[in-house]
Amino acid sequence: MALSLFSLSCAVFAFALFAQAGVSKLREPGTYTEVVSRYLGRSVGQGFVRVIGAVEVLLSILVLLPTTREAAGLVAAALLLVYGGLMARQVTRGGHAMRCGCGAAGSDTVISPELIIRNVVIAIPVLMMGMGAREAITPQIALVGVAAGTLLSILYVALDQLIANRQKLQGWY
């Protein structure tokens, strides 16, 4: 019961995280081409950004399905760690003024050590969300799981805003 609640809560959170990220890239690929190009150190086109967005949207759907949650969680956690690694590379090169591309196209957050840590911390439960995914859930577990996942999503947005506010106060941009 506890594992199924944990699994569903993490899945709802991962759904919100990756759906928002993917849809944002699909809606405004031009906005993300510069960000992705800077991360990779080479120029990319809007088609490449659309592929990233489509993968994120697909992952957001697959984490919700109990039969694909474990595999999707592995891929989603790996993607979060790859993004964190790309951020770390930029930070070590002095790229603090670079928009992270984590939030919506209008997000003010720039890459920083906090975002790298955030990605690693988020990757842990996303990696583990396959545990209990195939257990039967009651309507009560479903309701609490969706509510807990929604709360995690709200906390994520609040944390992102706190990081952005701190960066503004410190004059990062």
Account of the 3D structure:
This protein is 73% helix and 0% strand. It has helices at 2-27, 29-40, 46-62, 69-92, 113-128, 139-169. The model has no long low-confidence stretch (mean pLDDT 90). It is mainly α. It starts with a helix and ends with a helix.
Offer a quick outline of the entry.
The chain has 173 residues and is mostly helical. The chain is 73% helix and 0% strand. It has helices at 2-27, 29-40, 46-62, 69-92, 113-128, 139-169.
List the helices and strands and how they pair.
Blueprint: H1 2-27, H2 29-40, H3 46-62, H4 69-92, H5 113-128, H6 139-169
Helix pairs in contact: 1-2, 1-3, 1-6, 2-3, 3-4, 4-5
Which runs of at least 5 residues are low in confidence (pLDDT < 50)? none
The radius of gyration is 16 Å
Helical run tally: 6
Q: Approximately how much beta-strand content do the residues carry?
A: under 5%
Structural class: mainly alpha
Q: Write the H/E string, N to C.
A: HHHHHH
Please state the average pLDDT score: 90
Distance between the termini: 46 Å
**Main beta sheet:** none
Proportion of residues in helical segments: over 70%
For the secondary structure, the number of strands is 0
Overall geometry: globular
List keywords for this structure.
single chain; 173 residues; mainly alpha; 6 helices; 73% helix; 0% strand; globular
